[in-house]
Amino acid sequence: MVLSTSPSEKTLAELYARALEAASRAYAPYSRFRVGAALLLEDGTVQTGVNVENRSYGLTNCAERSAIYAAVSAANRSFVALAVSTPDADYPVSPCGACRQVISEFMKADAPVVFGPDASRLVHTTVSALYPYDALHELANSR
C-alpha cells in the first residue's frame, strides 16, 4: 500500500501510540528521560526508534535519528510522517536541533510531525515549522 494523501488524524494518533510504546524500550539509565519515535513510511509500514544513551553523552543517539537511520539502513527513504513520544516530560518536548537537521534531510517540508508526553497533549506541526529557513528545502523550491 502506498499512501497517496496526507495521513489522517486517526493515522497520526496510531503513529503516536507506536512512538509511546517504543519509548518503553529506550536505554536511558543516565537521564531517565525516555523517548520513542515512530516514522511512517510511504508504503504504510512504521519504523520505530528509541534514544540510546551512553555515559559519554556525545555518543548518545536520539529516538528520531534512530528511527530514520534504521529505515535508511533498510533501503527506505520515502517518509510520510513522524511521531515522537516523551512520556517522562511534563510538557511537549520537540526534536532537538540535530534531529531537526536529519528530519529535514529525509522528509518533505509539509510532512506532519506530532510530539508530546501523552496523547492528550500532542503538538501537531510540520517539518518546515520545526525547521524554518531550511536551506535544503529552499534550494529544492528555487529550481
- Helical amount: 25-40%
Q: What radius of gyration results from the CA coordinates?
A: 14 Å
Q: Strands across the major sheet, in which order?
A: 2-1-3-4-5
The CATH homologous superfamily corresponds to Cytidine Deaminase, domain 2
Distance separating the two termini: 31 Å
Order of helices and strands: HEEHEHEEHH
**Top CATH class:** Alpha Beta
Number of strands: 5
Count, helices: 5
Sheet-strand content, in percent, reads 15-25%
Q: Supply the helix-strand structural class.
A: alpha+beta
| Overall tally of structural domains | 1
Shape: globular
Level-2 CATH architecture:
3-Layer(aba) Sandwich
Mean pLDDT: 93
Largest sheet features: 5 strands, mixed
Low-confidence stretches: none
CATH topology, anyone?
A: Cytidine Deaminase, domain 2
How would you describe this protein?
By secondary structure, the chain is an alpha+beta fold. The protein has one domain: Cytidine Deaminase, domain 2, CATH 3.40.140.10. Helix content is 34%, strand content 19%. The protein has a 5-stranded mixed sheet with strand order 2-1-3-4-5. The chain is globular. The mean pLDDT is 93.
Architecture blueprint of SSEs:
Elements: H1 9-23, E1 36-41, E2 46-50, H2 63-73, E3 79-85, H3 97-106, E4 112-116, E5 123-126, H4 127-130, H5 135-142
Parallel strand pairs: 3-4
Antiparallel strand pairs: 1-2, 1-3, 4-5
